[in-house]
Description:
Layout: H1 14-24, E1 30-31, H2 43-53, H3 68-82, E2 92-95, H4 98-109, E3 115-120, H5 124-132, E4 136-145, E5 148-151, H6 153-158, E6 164-170, H7 182-195, E7 198-202, E8 228-233, E9 246-249, H8 252-263, H9 271-282, H10 288-305, E10 310-312, E11 319-323, H11 331-342, E12 344-345, E13 347-348, E14 360-364, H12 370-373, H13 376-384
Parallel strand pairs: 1-12, 3-4, 3-6, 6-7, 7-8
Antiparallel strand pairs: 2-9, 4-5, 8-9, 10-11, 11-14, 13-14
Helix pairs in contact: 2-9, 3-9, 4-5, 4-8, 11-13
Amino acid sequence: MPVSRLAHIAPIGVEQMGDLADSLKDPEVLRLENLDTDLRPPPAALDDTRRAVDDDAANSYLPFFGLDSLRQQAAALVGRQSGQQYSWKTECIISAGGLSGVLNVLLATLEPGDEVLMTDPIYVGLINRVRLAGGVPRFVPLVPSAAGWRLDLAALAAIDPGPVRAALLMSPSMPTGAVFNQEEWQALIDFCRRADAWLINDAAMERILYDGRQVIHPASFAGMRERVITIGAASKEYRMIGWRVGWVVGPAAIVADVARASISNVVCQVGIAMGAVAAAIAAPDDGIAASVAEWQARRDVLLGELRDFAVVPPHGGWSLLLDVAPLGLDGPAASRRLLEHGKIAATPMVNWGSARSGSYVRFVFANEPVARLRGIGERVRRALG
């Protein structure tokens, strides 16, 4: 029997699909199961990484809370996005990737049994971290339509704010690609005020937005600077997954508590990677705009290919969901058929939220070029009928 803290920790599903797809060693398999991308990091980041390999100072535990240069860049980045000013010395620390920052923030903000508001569907890795920290997920639905996903404002208004200590929110959300509009952000902020709750903003993909959408940062709303904790990462926007560097920016008192959790958890970041991330943030051309244009082109091809199926268009991010319930299938069955009969690796969304998530499979379009995505519609029709 597992220890009690692991009793409700669910498999992600990606690990099984990734291993299965790897084992086939078949180049014709479309790798849509995992959040990878084939687009390269900024050249300045690659150059700095090569330099750091021979830098003895980069081969160190110190400084525990991140290089000064990276803390300065990360604090300034969050400041630009939110319209606020943050002290890099007292209001920013560096984490070993974004999800390490998420766990440390949850450890610093939750008492056992506190509820955490989350959208549904949502990445199971976020749900698991809430539970590891002693929290209880409280889901508010995202409503699918042919036009995209929208937050269920009526369901949000019906939630008792009393037990909610934090809202862990992501826009664009994963795996749906839902992007909160002004009305939805305002409703979420009003809820956090009523609950006297932290708003934990997972900003890992905040600039991966399609169709001309613009970033709306929750700390930009009146009176929210002291309630919002922003967690960023180099993995998605800067295409630096293997560098394992993220950041936490927020009010000084809570960032000091997050630092205590951080130094007791992963301890420090990847030494040879931090300078590279600072260089990426500071680069005149970070490649984000060009990458977003390419990812949007891939999304558009995928939406066109799957137009005969129940696909919900994403407004941002790297993935979209296909609802297989109208085909009389559930996610695991559809995932098996897609791999066996269509050579498509796609992860079923079991455990990615409430029970309703089990009717979806996820297609990640960030790692396959347009040329390989063309014709996927025929593969899906062959596999699912």
